[in-house]
Write a structure and sequence with these properties.
Helix content: 25-40%
CATH topology: 60s Ribosomal Protein L30, Chain: A
CATH superfamily: RutC-like
CATH class: Alpha Beta
Number of strands: 7
Radius of gyration: 15 Å
Shape: globular
CATH architecture: 2-Layer Sandwich
Largest sheet: 5 strands, mixed
Strand content: 15-25%
Order of helices and strands: EEEEHHEHEE
Strand order of the largest sheet: 1-2-7-5-6
Structural class: alpha+beta
Length: about 150
Amino acid sequence: MNALPSGMAQPLARYAAWRRAGDLVFLSGVIAVDPGAQRIVRGYDDIPPEAAALLGRSGEFSTDIKEGPILAQSWWVLERIRQTVEAAGGQMSDVCKLVQYFRNLDHFPHYSRVRKLFFPDVLPVSTVVEVSAMLPTPELLIEVEATAYLPLP
């Protein structure tokens, strides 16, 4: 099964959101775009209020406008990974590898704070790469792909 449940974001192009190969599940890179709503996550206003509060939304414009985009996009991406892994029959603790692509490596400390919320115990193996651009828009700051170990029954 490689289809996502209805209501979850589908890929932006013709590729699988995830694919099982034996006991491994590979997730395509996830970006902070909701194709169903045709919306890019640009900041705290684009994620649930409880997530924004958890991430530290301060209500101070100068702080929130600076940190909000990378924190909100990081949360969105990791939340979509969580939903996809669960759709495949697993949980976040089954994720064994992440590859994180950043437009600006200065964003990594902010992303790292969010990642700890999704992986509170054992962190997956991790690769971090800075890239010059991401599809479909320069507003995207991060893309994450994941691999999960989900033994077949």
